[in-house]
Amino acid sequence: MNVYKRFARDTLIYGLASVLPRVVNVLLVSLHTKVLLPASYSVNTKFYVYIAFFNVLFTYGMETAFFRFFTMLDRDRRVLRTAFTSLLISSLFFTGLLWFFKDGISRWIGVSKDIYWIFLLILLLDTLMVIPYAWLRVMHRPYRFAFYRLSHTVIYAVFNVIFLLGMSRWLDSQSVAGGWFFSHSKVYYIFLANLIASGWVFLMFLPSLFKIGVGFDAALWGRMIGYGLPVMVAGVFYIINENFDKIALDKLAGPEVMGSYAAVYKIGVFMVLYITAFRLGAEPFYFNQSKHPDAKRQYAVIMSGYVLSASLLMMSVIVFLPWIVRIFIRNVAYLEALDIVPVILLAYLFLGIYFNLSIWYKLAHKTLFGTLFSAIGAVITVLINIYCIPRWGFMASAWATLAAYSVMTLVSYVTGRRYFPVPYAIGKISVYVILSAMISFVVYRYFYMNWTVKILLLLVFSLFVYLLEQKTIRQLLKNLSR
What we know:
Radius of gyration: 22 Å
Number of strands: 0
Helix content: over 70%
Low-confidence stretches: 175-180
Order of helices and strands: HHHHHHHHHHHHHHHHHHHHH
Distance between the termini: 8 Å
Strand content: under 5%
Mean pLDDT: 84
Structural class: mainly alpha
């Protein structure tokens, strides 16, 4: 199987495994916005914001370090066992530490104590499954990877429906008369559904965990930590870029505004879904092809393919936004934040470019640059949110996200040209990004309900892309058909 065909296959399967769960999460927004008011939805948002933050700390860059050293050392199983054993010991220690300080941390997070224990268990289980999932990816076992991910999704979705619809009579009463299990707030059962799903998938992983086994090479671990810690710090900054806006809005504008913003923000998940699928397929491909003499040209081709497809996706979401809103946002109280959608979509397009560019500092063993770039984005995010939310409200948060990701992309590209030059087609890429962004903003502002004009503009852009890139498209299709 040629490299492009394997890349496309793996991207498709990993994409389905990662996109479908997020699609289900987006579909669940319809259920959640139906049964929760914006203030309660803000609790749901804060829970997962802090889950994401602590996940980065719990894994401390070990997943990326595992990828790099496992491929660099010809799949030495010492790397696998050392990475897993490290996360096993540290996650148990950190979980115990967070439980010991439960009173202060639960108040800081903004969740009740009955929710906090679920929070800790989800953190623990998810951390223990990081290396097994990464092992499946690097060993090119996308079908098993997809099975585990989709199992989690199905269980989570089913229990959401059972708890929020099937038991709605008890949850609406919120009375202890139905017993302890039925006495919690509705948002509690969303988290309980997640815990049930994570627990079940962990049980399915147990045979693989025993197969991996435990083992620890201190010298190797030191090298992996040295590689992974900058990735962890960059991950913390990434979480700030992704989620500080929600925390700042909650503090500066109130939980109702944050809840509306967070729900509408989920529409941007369409771009996140594609970025996730692309990254899951591209990252192992980039590492595995790093020794190929034609690797840099392959990286450039993949970047162009990403920008073209992501630009079309952004425009498509804007064109069909009225239908999307009608499906996913079931309460008009959330729609006050709808203007953020074009800005967030463009921000995520830049984030995808940044992810593709990031391969240069990972392969050049200069991961400190990734930390620096993420820190720049985090500073931009924090400053704009703090100083501009009181003046412009939630739109300040959306523009902060765009500013952070676009600056990170620019700085990474300029720096990468010095240390790891890749022949990206910058001229064409810039034209596609600027043109698709302009059309998207015009369509949203002036032709929101004019379907004829919207679809015509989408078709014109698609034809423009095809005329400029038909040779590349034909060559890519030829490679995939081999």
